[in-house]
């Protein structure tokens, strides 16, 4: 009898209410296959190279500005939006099935606690590495006054615009209150991830508490919904090489290499820090906590990593992350369905590292010395704020202002970094998404 249709990969379903599902309710793999990872990579490299060339050759022409405005930017955005389009129904279906599939509340508590503690541990490591790097390199110390003033005036507008965004407002008690949605449909309509996660968790718990025969049809419907969303994603991912090309072309053609060169040491500090985390720290954690050989893990995870790099969004990457976890890393659906949506919202290791570096960089540029106690405040706020950051492009910038304010640094300092944020965002999203897969693999193994 197929009760909650959650694939358990050979593990016995728990609780008597959740007998093992039958073959007939196994997920049907679709005939549609997305593009090869190498094609996405080609779109990424070609887009970046073509964009930089266009910037060098026609940087200040109206023709290039029009091409970006009317063609590449809308094309890239439409692809990105199509990815994000499925996230809310997918999170709802997969998270509630994931929770229900865990069977009993004790198991849910164990898995939940393990997941959140692991998130916290890894995010703390990332924030510490960021602070160590920025203290070592001191990228803000030598930035010429003139460059600083130019950046501040050029991006002032963009930076003050960010303050007005909902996430950038306040991260106080109200944020906590808002985690409980008054109306789940309203939360879904606004794309409020934390509220949706809360409702989906509650829905899953209730599903698990009801007798199996009363939830059978609902569970089948939820599984069908999740499967349909995955098919949409596979269709959208077919366009990935073109979407990625458009996104990368837009960024590269708009900014060129000039701005990157001016903030050189800051960018180097962030990217080297993220690279150390991705390629030195994660492999150790992968080996110790998941049992995978790191090269094999990365090989299998490549598709999600490239999607993260090209979309700069953990949310947009979520369906691909789920697919990689289940199909390539063999993680049971109930575990990945629980850990990955949570991770896409809460586990932002790259973001925490970035915030630590950026806050100290801005302090250095303003000639402010932050004693160890303030740096600890930066670290703690960076960890908390990374959890509060939305998994969307530049989600970190919206909460950065709060980390700056925590240690009394003028918020306008953000203006210095917004211009180059897209490139850094791509890299930190890779670290964020890898962290989600690592956590899912760890939890799956420990269960
Ligand atoms: N873009 C990041 C993500 O989606 C968040 C951020 O750091 O801005 O994971």
Q: Tell me, what is the CATH class?
A: Mainly Alpha
Mean pLDDT score: 83
Query: Helix count?
Result: 21
**Ligands bound to this protein structure:** aspartic acid
The CATH superfamily name is Sodium:dicarboxylate symporter
Radius of gyration over all CA atoms, rounded: 22 Å
The termini sit apart by 24 Å
**Integer tally of domains:** 1
Shape: globular
CATH topology term: Proton glutamate symport protein
* CATH-defined architecture: Orthogonal Bundle
Poorly predicted tracts of residues: 1-32, 163-169
Helix and strand run: HHHHHHHHHHHHHHHHHHHHH
| Helix coverage percent | over 70%
Provide structural commentary.
By secondary structure, the chain is an all-alpha fold. It has one domain (34-446): Proton glutamate symport protein, CATH 1.10.3860.10. It has helices at 37-58, 62-85, 87-101, 105-137, 145-163, 166-169, 173-178, 184-190, 193-209, 212-238, 240-255, 258-262, 264-290, 294-311, 314-328, 333-346, 349-365, 372-388, 395-406, 415-418, 421-446. The chain starts with 36 loop residues before the first helix and ends with a helix. Residues 1-32 and 163-169 have low confidence and may be disordered. Aspartic acid binds next to helix 19 and helix 21.
